[in-house]
């Protein structure tokens, strides 16, 4: 995910400095989900994004088709990674999380806890019209 918070704006004075980026992902609008994955020959089947700036969350990027995460079905792009094998990763660097994942790969499995935004009650996802309908 490319978080370009330094893009031009009609109100440049309101753009926060990059190092102040924070994501408040606690509270009733979020749920946590525990996911156990076994490593396949191609890996765990997802990409990790974020952690490049202080306070930036670690996010699930692409879920690789037919990989372990895809077959499991519970990880979604944009999920915030909270724990890797019981170790908290909030506020940690991208490199730190990658090192934890390499350790998990050597063990052949990983336990992840992710946090996901929950739609408010009564809100329905918008229907997507097909071309020609």
Write the layout of secondary structure elements.
Blueprint (H helix, E strand, L loop, with lengths): L29 E9 L7 E5 L7 E6 L4 H5 L7 E5 L2 E2 L5 H14 L1 E9 L16
Antiparallel strand pairs: 1-6, 2-3, 4-5, 4-6
Task: Describe the protein's architecture and organization.
- By secondary structure, the chain is α+β, with helices and mostly antiparallel strands.
- The chain has a domain at 29-117: PDZ domain (Pdz3 Domain), CATH 2.30.42.10.
- The protein has 2 helices and 6 strands.
- The strands form 2 sheets. Strands 1-6-4-5 form a 4-stranded antiparallel beta sheet. Strands 2-3 form a two-stranded antiparallel ribbon.
- The chain starts with 29 loop residues before the first strand and ends in a 16-residue tail after the last strand.
- This is PDZ domain-containing protein.
- InterPro entries: PDZ (IPR001478), PDZ_sf (IPR036034).
- Residues 1-12 have a biased composition (Polar residues).
- Unreliable parts: 1-23, 122-133
SSE string: EEEHEEHE
In whole angstroms, how far apart are the ends?
A: 32 Å
Counting copies of identical and different chains, the oligomeric state is: single chain
Strand order of the largest sheet: 1-6-4-5
Summary tags:
single chain, about 130 residues, alpha+beta, Pdz3 Domain, four-stranded antiparallel β-sheet, two-stranded antiparallel sheet, 2 helices, 6 strands, globular, disordered N terminus, disordered C terminus, PDZ domain-containing protein, signaling receptor complex adaptor activity
């Amino acid at each position: 995910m490319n978080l370009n918070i330094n893009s031009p704006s009609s109100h440049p004075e309101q753009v926060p400095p990059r190092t102040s980026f924070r994501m408040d992902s606690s509270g009733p609008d979020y749920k946590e989900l525990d996911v156990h994955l076994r490593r396949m020959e191609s890996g765990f089947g997802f990409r990790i994004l974020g952690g490049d700036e202080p306070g930036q969350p670690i996010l699930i990027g692409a879920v690789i088709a037919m990989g372990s995460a895809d077959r499991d079905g519970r990880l979604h792009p944009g999920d915030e990674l909270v724990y890797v094998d019981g170790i908290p990763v909030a506020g940690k660097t991208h490199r730190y999380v990658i090192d934890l994942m390499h350790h998990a790969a050597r063990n052949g499995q990983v336990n992840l806890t992710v946090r996901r935004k929950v739609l408010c009650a009564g809100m329905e996802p918008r229907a997507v019209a097909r071309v020609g309908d």
